[in-house]
Amino acid sequence: MATFHIEGGHKLAGELHPQGAKNEALEVICATLLTTEQVTISNIPEIRDVLKLIEILTELGVKVNRVQKGMYLFQADQLDMHYLQSEQFAQQATSLRGSIMIIGPLLARFGQAYIPQPGGDKIGRRRLDTHFVGLQKLGAQFNYDPDKHFYHVETEKLLGAYMLLDEASVTGTANILMAATLAEGTTTIYNAACEPYLQQLSNMLVAMGAKIDGIGSNLLRIEGVSELKGCKHTILPDMIEVGSFIGLAAMTSSEITIPNAGVNHLGIIPDSFKRLGIQLNIQGDSIHIPAQDSYEIETFIDGSIMTIADAPWPGLTPDLLSIFLVIATQAKGSVLIHQKMFESRLFFVDKLIDMGAQIILCDPHRATVIGQNKKHQLKGTTMSSPDIRAGVALLIAALSAQGESKIYNIEQIDRGYEGIDQRLNSIGAKIERVD
Ligand SMILES: CC(=O)N[C@H]1[C@@H](OP(=O)(O)OP(=O)(O)OC[C@H]2O[C@@H](n3ccc(=O)[nH]c3=O)[C@H](O)[C@@H]2O)O[C@H](CO)[C@@H](O)[C@@H]1O
Ligand SMILES: C=C(OP(=O)(O)O)C(=O)O
User: Fold this and answer.
1) What is the CA radius of gyration of the chain?
2) Which residues line ligand 1 (CB under 6 A)?
3) Which of 49, 175, 326, 354 could form a disulfide with 393 if both were Cys (CB 3.0 to 4.6 A apart)?
4) Are residues 115 and 228 in the same domain?
5) Do residue 84 and residue 122 come from a single domain?
């Protein structure tokens, strides 16, 4: 397991370019399985989870050609479905969440798919019911082998249907949407998730010949077509990375510019940072964050303590709450961080408390943060990265802290952030990667 050694307390200055969005990449790479024709995808982040998914597709028989950094050609014209029953597949697929999204396309094209319980962040229970109930509504038979933790779906053919999802699951909506593009007849998905990842996936499917109405809303209507063709697609900047960089600038009192931030696709994210008192100047598609020695958390209009809570899009993404939490530790004022979706994502606050932050973990979903207005700097410590976003939140804390810190298990950070140490070192951070 690799480790980051961090010398904290240095101001950073310069530009940080966001990578392509991890969660969009995982969706659109799976969508290449829907056609025999060639699909070109640009701005693919070359991070662990995405590279593992590409490896799975390659083993499955997809011809993958890396044209240049971030730009890949995929052609799924000859697949080996036996691979899905191999031990190797079982091992690979369990290492990331995104692998679950191969089942919708495979079911639609080949009438069957297998998948082991997928991996991803250990941030609470992560059920798959929405995926399978949706596919069953399209006519699939579903089997689960509890001993092997293996899911199997099969069908003679998929038929369009109406469905009201029990929750707006991001990867669940992606799976059902992809399957529905090749189903016979019309599918209506109500309570669909509509994150930019899904809007982008829908736009790509339309470019491939799919018929989809309601893109960007929670009501999708898909008229099935008999086949899809190739296309070219470019992945948006990663909004979670953009948010992480804003948090980094605020915590380290640094002046940072984020070019090509995809500002039209950030939804409520910039305003949520502003509610914590962080200044952001949006200039075209760039975000400039000035060096701030202090930022003050707003109260609600009635004077009560601010709450930052997650919600399905267009609400605030849960993937940024760890970042909001860490920057609140040095704000002026108090805030309640309410992580509604995941059950085990706030436990990393123990480490921040060790570093001197004032946080009360009320229960697994809620933490009250009493900001210290940068009067008491955090102190470096030794910690381990429990998941991607907590890992980056701890990295930001360590960079702002007095003294040295060590973060173990940085593979978790590498799952979602490409060469984060090199990129931050290029603007003045002091991070050493020790293998
Ligand atoms: C590979 C990928 O794309 N991963 C993202 C995807 O995961 P993923 O698609 O796995 O997450 P889901 O959207 O299915 O659900 C996430 C969690 O939120 C809960 N839930 C979801 C919807 C809802 O209306 N109410 C509710 O409580 C679920 O029970 C679950 O605990 O979406 C999550 C939620 O944005 C993100 O954190 C993950 O980064
Ligand atoms: C929870 C996340 O990822 P995954 O769903 O891939 O575990 C995340 O990106 O914050």
Assistant:
1) 22
2) 23, 26, 97-98, 124, 126, 167-172, 193, 312, 317-319, 341-342
3) 326
4) yes
5) yes
Nearest ligand 2 atom, CA 49: 6
> What's the pLDDT at 126?
84
The catalytic residues are 121
- Structural domain harbouring 12: 3-19+237-434
Smallest CA-to-CA distance from 144 within 103, 185, 196 is with: 103
- Tell whether 227 and 327 lie within a shared domain: no
ipTM above 0.90, yes or no: yes
Report how many domains make up the chain. Answer: 2
- CA–CA separation, 287 and 145 (whole Å): 49
* Window from 112-116, 306-310, 313-317 with minimum mean pLDDT: 112-116
Q: Tell whether residue 97 is among the known ligand binding residues.
A: yes
- Of all ligands present, the nearest one to the C-alpha of 389 is 2
Q: Is 341 annotated as a binding residue?
A: yes
Task: Indicate whether 270 and 378 sit together in one domain.
Answer: yes
Q: What is the bridge-based pairing of β-strands 162-164 and 186-190?
A: parallel
pTM above the 0.90 mark?
yes
> Can you tell me the mean pLDDT for 213-233?
98
Token pair in block for residue 159: 């038929």
Q: Which domain-ending residue is among 181, 211, 234? A: 234
Express each pLDDT in 141-150 by its tens digit: 999 998 888 8
